[in-house]
Amino acid sequence: MGANRKVLSNGLKVFDLLLMVVAFAVSTLPLFERVGRFSLAEFFEMRVKLGNLMLFISFLLIWHILFSVFGLYGSKRMSKRWEEARDIAGATTLGTIVIAAAALMFRIWVVNLLLTLLSFGIYSAWAKVRKTRYFYQNTQLDGHAFDYHGAPLAILRGRMLAVVLLVAYSWSFDISRTVGLVTIAVLCLAGPWLFMKAQQFRFRNSSWRGLRFGFDANLAAAYRTLLPLLLIWFSGTILGALLVPMTVLGVVGIATGLLLPLMHHALKRYQHARISYGNVAATFKPALGRFYFVYFKGLLLLFVTAAIGSFAALGVMWAANLLRRTFGFEGQGDTQLAAMVAAGGVGLIAYLGVWPYFSTRLQQIVWGNSHLGSVGFETRIRAWPLLLLVLKCVSLTVITLGLYWPYAAVALARYRIANMEVIAPAALNDAVTGVSARTVAAGEGAADVFGLDVGL
Amino acid sequence: MSSTPAALFGATWFDGQTAAAHTVNVDVTAGGLSLLATDGSLLRTVGLDTVELSEPCARAPRFAYFQDGSTLEVHDAEPFTGALEALGLRPSPVARLQRSAPAATGALALLVASIILAYTHGVPVLARWIAFALPESVEERLGEQFEKTLNLQLLKNSDLSEKYQAHVRSLLQDAAVRGAPGIQYVLKSRATQEGKVINAFSLPGGTIILLDGLVEAAAKENQVLAVLAHELGHVANKHGLRNVLQALGIGALASAMWGDFAGVAANVPVVFGALHYSRAFELEADTYAVTFLRANGMDAQPLIEFFELMAERKDEGEGEGPVDILSTHPQTKDRIERLKRM
User: Fold this and answer.
1) From start to end of A102-160, where are the E strands?
2) Which residues of chain B does A50 touch, with a Cβ-Cβ cutoff of 8 Å?
3) Which chain A residues have a beta carbon less than 8 Å from that of B18?
4) Could you count the other beta carbons within 10 Å of the beta carbon of residue B323?
5) In the predicted model, what is the mean pLDDT of chain B?
6) What confidence tens digit (pLDDT) does each residue in A29-74 have?
7) Per the structure, how many domains does chain B have?
8) Tell me, what's the ipTM?
9) Quick one: CA dihedral A97, A100, A101, A103, positive or negative?
10) If exposure means fewest CB atoms within 10 Å of the residue's CB, which of A319, A385, A438, B28 is most exposed?
C-alpha cells in the first residue's frame, strides 16, 4: 500500500544498528588481536599512504566486480520473475499495482536536490511532497492512482522541531548529566505524541478514489504502547548516565535485545490496527511468536555471514600486506586503517546478506496479518531476488556517486509493489467518508529525521 | 471562437464522500472543465479559477480538486495537460523544470558545481564566520570536552620538572607579547600514557598541549618555540572550532546528497573532506609561525630545522610513504620547501 512503501530507504533502523554493532564486534575481534592496542603515537602518526590507497581501491574493485556480476544475473532473473509475478497477479487477483518509469524520478530528484541545497535545506519540505506525490500518483490499485496531499509548510514546521530535538539529544549529555536526562525525559514524553501525529499526518494526507485514509489517533493508546518502548530503548543511556555498574548495564543491554522483537511487534500492531479508509477500519492479527522466530533466525544468519566476512577480510588484508611488502611501503599506522576498512567491509557483507531475508520475512508476516475491512494483503517478495536487486542498486549507486539513486528507489519500489497482492480491493468501493482532513504535520517531519517510522 | 469539436479526455469523478467511481469525459474550454456522462449529457461545468490542479507527474493521471471536495482523476493526462497549456494554464515553474530534460541536465550541472563550490569555498567561509561569531564560552566548552577525553584515555601528567615547565611557559609568554599580541592561550605540558610521541597540539578555546616527547626531541629551545608558535597559529585562527564546524557542514552537504541512500555512505566524504581542510590549516599555521618568529627577531630557520629533524627520524624509522594525499599533515618535505621560500 502506498503509505507503507518507504520501507527500503528508511528501513529498520533498530535492526541496522544491532546488525552493524554485532558485525563490527565479530569482525574486529580477530583483527585487533593482531593489531594490538591503539596507542596515541599511532593515532597521531596515522597516515593514509599509497599502500592503504591501493588496499582501499582493491576493496572497491572487488566489490564492483562482485556487484556487477550479481547485478547482471539479478536483472535477468528479476525480469523473468517480475513478468511471472505479474501474470499470476493478473490471473488470480482483482487488483494489480503498477508504477511508472524512473526517468522522471531522476529529474524530480535532481531539480529538488538543487533547490534544497540552494535554499539551505528549507526547500526539502517541498521536495519531500513532490517525491512522495511521484510515488503515490504513479502507483495504481484497481485502475486508480493514489494521491498525496501533505502541506509543505506543515512538514517544514515539523522538520524544524525535529532538528531542535535531534540537536538537543546529541549535545545534551555534553552539557551535563542532568540536562541529558531531562532531554531524554522530554523525548520519552513527546515521542508517543510525535509518532502518533506522524502516522496521522501520513495517512490522512493519503487518498485513493477521492477518499482519504485515516489513522485512529488515540493519545492514551499511543502512550500505553509507545512509552514503554521508549523507556526500554533509552534504558541503556539512562542507566549509563546514572553510572550503574557495568554488569547491570550488560544485563539491561541483553534484556533490551531480547525485548526488541516485542517492541517491534507492538509498534507494527499499533500502526496497522489503526489505519482506516473511509469508514472501513484495518485490523492486525498479532504474530509475536513469528516475529521472535524471524529475529532469531536473522541473528543466526548474521553470525554466519559475519564469520565468513571476517575470514574474507583477513584474506584481503594478508594479500594487501604482501602487496605492500613487494612494493616496499612499510608502516604501522596502515594496519589500523586496514582493520577499519576490513571491518566496514564485513559489516557491509553481513548487512547485505541478512537484511533482505529479515525484511522480506517480516513484511510477509505483517502484511499477511493485516486486513482493511474484508480486504487482505499478500506479498510475494522473496529474499534472494530482493538481495540481488539491492546489490545491483547499491553498487550502481556507489559507482555513480549517488546519481543512480532515483532509479534505484523506483526499481525497489516497483519490485515491492509489483509483488504486493491486494485481495479483493473491490470491497472498498462501498467505503464512505468518516475522516476530516485537518491535521498537524509536526510528527511527520520528526519521523523523517528520527527514523521513527520503523516501517514495513 | 470557432467551434471545432474539442477533444474529450477520459476521467473518473469521485464525490469525496464515497469511494464509488463515476466514469466521465472531460472537455476543457475557456469556460472551464465540463464533465460529460458516458451518454454525452453534461453533468456539470466548473470554472477553471475554482479548480485546483495537481502537477503533471510522468504517466500518472492528473487530479483536479473541486471546491465541494470532489475529485476528478484524468487518465489521459498528457493531452489534458496540453489542452490546459493551450488555455494558458501552465504547471508551476518547478513542475516545468522537472518535465524538461535540458532543464534537468542544467540542474545536474548546477548541482555538481554548487557542491564543489560549497566544498571549496562555502563551507570554509561559513565555518570561519561562525567560528568568530560564536561566543568564546562555546569554544572553551568544546575544548574542555576534548581535553577531558584526552586526559582520560591518552595523556598523563608531564614528567618534566615543574621548574622547566614554567621556563617553557615564560619563554612562550615573552615571545607572544610581540608575536601573538592579544591571543588568549594556556600552555600545558603533558606526556603520553604509552610511548614517547613527538607532538604538540592545540584545542578549541586556546589550550596548547606540549608533549614531553617533543621537548626531548628538539635540538634547541627555539625549535620548541617555533612549534608552539605554529600551535598559536591554530589558536589565533580558531582552527579547532573551524574543523568541527566544517565537518558538520560537509556532513550536512553529504546527507543532503546521499542521505536518502545510506546514512553510513554520507559519512565518507566527511572524513576525506576534513583531511583536506586540515592540510590547509597546517599551512596557515606555518605562515603564522614564521610571522611570529620574525616579530621576535628570528626567521623560519628553527621551524625548518625541526621539520628536518622529524624527516630524518622518519627516514631512520618507518619511512614516510611517497604519496601523502590523504594525510592530516602535508608532506613534511613540501612544508620545508614552502618555509624556505618564505
Assistant:
1) 140-141, 144-148
2) 321-323
3) 211, 278, 430-433
4) 14
5) 81
6) 333 333 333 333 333 333 333 333 344 444 444 444 443 333 332 3
7) 3
8) 0.73
9) negative
10) A438
Q: How far apart are CA B125 and CA B246, in angstroms?
A: 9
Is B54 inside a domain boundary?
yes
Q: Is the Cβ pair A53, B323 closer than 8 Å?
A: yes
Give residue-wise pLDDT tens across range A123-138: 888 888 888 888 888 8
Question: Residue B1 domain-assigned?
Answer: no
Q: Is residue B225 part of a domain?
A: yes
Domain residues for the domain of B115 are: 100-133
A409 touches chain B (CB under 8 A): yes
List Cβ neighbours of A39 (8 Å cut-off, separation of 6 or more).
B192, B194, B195
Cβ atoms of B231 and B201 within 8 Å: the answer is: yes
With H, G, I as helix, E, B as strand and everything else as coil, classify residue B291: helix
B195:A41 CB<8 A: yes
Candidates B107, B194, B321; nearest CB to A50: B321
B315 and B194, same domain (yes or no): yes
Measured between alpha carbons, how far is residue B1 from residues A196, B29, B34 in Å? 55, 11, 17
Q: Read off the pTM.
A: 0.71
Chain A residues closer than 8 Å to B257 by CB: 113, 402
Residue with cell 514503554: A228
Whether chain B has a CB inside 8 Å of the CB on A49: the answer is yes
Neighbouring residues of A112: CB distance < 8 A, sequence distance ≥ 6: A123, A126, A127, A130, A131, B94, B98
Q: Are residues B38 and B23 in the same domain?
A: yes
Residues B239 and B119 reside in one and the same domain: no
* Boundary-marking domain end, from B133, B152, B177: B133
Q: How far apart are CA B202 and CA B147, in angstroms?
A: 10
CATH code of the domain covering residue B78:
2.30.29.30
Do B81 and B108 fall within a single domain? no
A264-276 tens-digit pLDDT: 898 888 888 888 8
What is the three-class DSSP state of A120?
coil
B206 and B151 both lie in a single domain = yes
B2 domain-assigned: no
* Co-location of B189 and B79 in the same domain: no
Give B177 to chain A, closest Cα distance, Å. Answer: 30
